[in-house]
């Protein structure tokens, strides 16, 4: 009996091979596209979340700028309404900004005590010598305020405190018994500086210096991927506590920093350029970004970026009464 079973011909094998090749190529393309979409979605989510966290941290802090407990709104004058008890005249690792009275604590100087000050690194004439590695052409901002709520037992030796009434303030370190101030309340005193620097891996990050018993020698690493910061200062020129114009730090005058003669800064607009922490070789960034009045040219690298911003209305716009 004749055997009728036969295998594939050479032509059939070649056709099957070509079809398999196309199927494999299609599957590879779908897998590659899926991987790209996952990377894109992940990085965009990371940009949004890092930007949100950075703005939230700064907004919660800066919105209370100038809060000085019961004496809020009155200039702190050492020897008149303010006393320093056990506080060294020159704080170790202090960050002293521009102006006659712009150290961590008010000095015995006939000048307004600055609770707000800033500059653009590498552009402004003045800077803070205490900072290291600040990225060029990024803004730096320092603020001073009390941390609420008031405390019953100000005894943390690593902190500084202020006892306040409506017309008197005593600044002291949390060692030993706190000073007695009739009808006064105790608050933690804080000096913060926000700036941008690269970490050990070369990733830019938002950092903050925080006052402790050792001065401002520590850097808190807050959020990775914050590549640039621009701050626009809201100026009130008609006394209604609302910003009539916004200006870059270079245009802020001495009177505005001191809130003297009703030259008041009442709000801030903060712009952050957020960068992904890892490159994506399938993406080339040719986008130009705008941060307030500043333009960041396209880098043509493989990092995704996003601009986030917020407007912070200062809770205490009238920082100095007279």
TrEMBL record:
Residues annotated as transmembrane: 7-31
InterPro entries: N_methyl_site (IPR012902), PilW (IPR032092)
Annotated Pfam families: N_methyl (PF07963), PilW (PF16074)
Source superkingdom: Bacteria
This protein's UniProt keywords: Membrane, Transmembrane, Transmembrane helix
GO biological process, one term: type IV pilus assembly
NCBIfam families per record: IV_pilin_GFxxxE
Name the UniProt record assigns to this protein: PilW family protein
Organism ancestry: Bacteria, Pseudomonadati, Pseudomonadota, Gammaproteobacteria, Alteromonadales
């Amino acid at each position: 009996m004749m055997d009728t079973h036969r295998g594939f011909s050479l032509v059939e094998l070649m056709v099957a091979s070509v079809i398999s090749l196309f199927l494999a190529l299609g599957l590879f393309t779908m897998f590659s596209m899926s991987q790209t979409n996952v990377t894109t979605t992940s990085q965009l989510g990371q940009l949004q979340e890092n930007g949100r966290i950075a703005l939230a941290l700064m907004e919660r802090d800066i919105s209370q700028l100038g809060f000085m407990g019961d004496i809020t709104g009155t200039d702190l004058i050492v020897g008149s309404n303010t006393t320093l008890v056990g506080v060294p005249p020159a704080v170790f690792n202090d960050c002293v900004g521009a102006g006659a009275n712009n150290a961590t604590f008010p000095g015995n100087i006939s000048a307004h005590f600055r609770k707000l000050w800033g500059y653009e690194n590498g552009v402004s004439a003045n800077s803070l010598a205490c900072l290291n590695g600040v990225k060029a052409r990024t803004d730096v901002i320092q603020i001073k305020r009390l941390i609420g709520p008031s405390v019953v037992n100000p005894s943390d030796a690593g902190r500084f405190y202020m006892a306040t009434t409506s017309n008197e303030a005593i600044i002291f370190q949390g060692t030993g018994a706190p000073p007695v101030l009739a009808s006064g309340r105790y608050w933690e005193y804080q000096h913060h500086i926000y700036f941008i620097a690269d970490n050990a891996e070369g990733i830019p990050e938002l950092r903050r210096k925080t006052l402790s018993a050792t001065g401002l020698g520590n850097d808190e690493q807050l959020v990775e991927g914050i590549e640039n910061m621009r701050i626009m200062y809201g100026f009130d020129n008609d006394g209604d506590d609302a910003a009539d114009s916004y200006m870059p730090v270079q245009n802020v005058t001495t009177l505005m920093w001191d809130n003297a003669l009703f030259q008041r800064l009442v709000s801030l607009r903060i712009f952050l350029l957020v960068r992904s922490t890892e490159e994506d070789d399938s993406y080339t960034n040719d986008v130009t970004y705008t941060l307030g009045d500043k333009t960041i040219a396209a880098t043509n690298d493989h990092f995704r970026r996003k601009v986030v911003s917020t407007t912070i209305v200062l809770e205490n716009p009238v920082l100095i009464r007279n």
